[in-house]
Amino acid sequence: MTDPYAMKPEVYSALVDLSTDICRRNGKRKLVWIADQEKALSYEVKPDEMLLTVHRWFAKKSCPGNWLFEKMGSLADEVNSKL
After folding, report:
1. Which residue in 2, 11, 3, 68 sits closest to 53, CA to CA?
2. Closest CA to 52 of 32, 68, 22
3. CB hemisphere CA count around 25 (13 angstroms)
4. First vs last Cα of the chain: how many Å apart?
5. 8-57: per-residue pLDDT in tens?
6. How many helices (H) and strands (E) does the chain have?
7. Of 53, 58, 60, 61, which residue has the fewest beta carbons closer than 10 angstroms?
């Protein structure tokens, strides 16, 4: 509920499952994470990829919080291992 907005392991696991399901339902075989905003937003996404972005790149927010932001690469890796 407060910074660093950490998730319980079961919540993070549900996020991995949800993200995997979203990719599958949309015919994507790879979830791409690029931590650098400029590089990510200029990345040309391939038809079988989905680009992971964060709210802080589009609004003056800190979403998803630093705890989860630092785990986005791991999140993408875990999703990709299930795809």
Report:
1. 68
2. 32
3. 6
4. 31
5. 999 999 999 999 999 999 999 999 999 999 999 999 999 999 999 999 99
6. 4, 2
7. 60
